[in-house]
Design brief:
The chain has helices at 30-40, 50-59, 71-82, 107-116, 128-136; strands at residues 4-11, 15-17, 43-49, 84-88, 100-103, 121-125, 142-148, 156-157, 168-175, 181-187. It is an alpha/beta fold. This is Dihydrofolate reductase family protein.
């Protein structure tokens, strides 16, 4: 069975975005881009909420075509164009969306069907609302948390309304020179 891994930047106090969705506090550099590029190459499906998908769709399909495109822009644009995208949305319609599946209802069964299909990991990028929904249904198998050296004090938390404990096993950690630390967890029993 395929596994879903949540890939998320997070503040030291547990927020994934500021109160208005701000993400300008996230630290990224070439070292992180190279590391993430290698990690995501193991995934064959990208999972997004509508807002994150629309943000990604507005940039990545043509990012490599820009004259100022960085190495990361070129590599991630190529990956983004070939990866199958699954979007959780009650309002988005899938007419003319290449290589994209929209899930608007019956989330548990729809995601479990995708997990049963052959392929690599399913990577959930950002998307706090989608992440919250999947956590509630116990559909996330692991977390790649990129802890940024900042305390926001308020914002959108990663974990909300948790009804049952989620026991995690730490697989590894990695310290980046910019001060970000990755914590790689798998859900206990996965």
């Amino acid at each position: 069975m395929r596994k879903i891994f949540s890939f998320m930047h997070i503040s030291l106090d547990g927020f994934v975005a500021g109160p208005n969705g701000e993400m300008n506090w996230i630290k990224v550099d070439e070292e992180i881009f190279d590391y993430v590029g290698k990690r995501i190459s193991e995934g064959s499906t990208a999972l997004y909420g509508r807002v994150t998908y629309q943000m990604m769709e507005s940039y990545w399909p043509t990012a490599a075509d820009k004259p100022t495109a960085s190495k990361h822009d070129i590599e991630h644009s190529q990956w983004y164009k070939k990866v199958h995208k699954v979007v959780l949305s009650k309002t988005l319609e899938d007419a003319d969306l290449p290589n994209t599946t929209i899930i608007s209802d019956n989330l548990l069964n729809s995601i479990n069907e995708i997990k049963q299909q052959p392929g690599g990991d399913i990577l959930l990028f950002g998307s706090p609302t989608a992440t919250h929904s999947l956590i509630q249904l116990n559909l996330i198998d692991g977390y790649w948390l990129f802890v940024n050296p900042i305390v926001l004090g308020q914002g959108i938390p990663l974990f909300v309304d948790i009804k049952d404990k989620i026991k995690l096993n730490l697989l590894n950690t990695r310290q980046f020179t910019c001060g970000v630390t990755e914590l790689n967890y798998i859900v206990d029993g996965q």
